[in-house]
Amino acid sequence: MAEIKSTLDIVLEKTKHLVLSPEERRALDRQEHLEKIPGIIQRFLDDAWTLEHMKDAWRAIPEDFQEEARRAIVRKLLDALSPEETGGKIESALKAFAAPAETPYLDRLSRLTTMETTPENSWDAQRRRLLAHLAERGIAGDAVHVTPAVDPHWQTTRKTLAREIESLKKDWRAALEAEPSPGPPEP
Fold first, then answer.
1. Among 58, 137, 170, 187, whose CB has the most other CB atoms within 10 angstroms?
2. What are φ and ψ of residue 43, in 5° steps?
3. Contacts of 51 (CB under 8 A, 6+ apart)
4. What is the pLDDT of residues 32-59, one digit of tens each?
């Protein structure tokens, strides 16, 4: 009498001779590790992880893929960089993951951060200026709050910062793309 086989048994029987080549295995490993990068970044941005947690997650990636993962982390951090975020945790993370060759981009980012925090450009100084202006008109008290969205001076400063940040992002991404990708490991 014939043996009755399940679909799984038939599939396993027909595919038992299939084996991944070393190149295919490496490509799957690479893809598996690089797919973790967005989650690592999101946990950091959501304040679920500190910079140290993010570094530990990066160190856990096999050495063969760490440089490519580092570049992916820098790209994702650049995506999150905005005028409202300059000088914050994204800048410190970029400093932690930037390669020595990327120092000029960090210097540009630092200058942008400095530009934003000069006394006349800082949001705090602008907030005090707006509150003083409102007080002159007789509008004052604890219930008065000003927001960046309604301040024309802050909007002008923000547009300038946004232009500069976009230029920085574009240049840094181009440099990341120009870096040679690590080839297969030496035997």
1. 58
2. -60, -40
3. 44, 89, 92, 93, 96
4. 999 999 999 999 999 899 999 999 999 9
Residue 40: how many CB atoms within 10 A of its CB? 22
Q: Where are the domains of the chain?
A: 26-178
Report CA-CA distances (Å) from 112 to 44, 87, 176.
22, 9, 20
CA distances from 100 to 12, 68, 90, 104, 143 (A): 50, 15, 18, 9, 49
pTM over 0.90: no
The C-alpha atoms of residue 124 and residue 126 are separated, in whole angstroms, by 5
Q: Beta-carbon neighbour count of residue 173 at 10 Å?
A: 16
C-alpha span between 94 and 55 (Å, rounded): 11
C-alpha distances (whole Å) from 73 to each of 31, 100, 123 are 14, 15, 29
DSSP H helices, 51-151, are 51-59, 63-80, 89-97, 103-117, 123-136
Cα 174 to Cα 27: distance, rounded to the nearest angstrom: 24
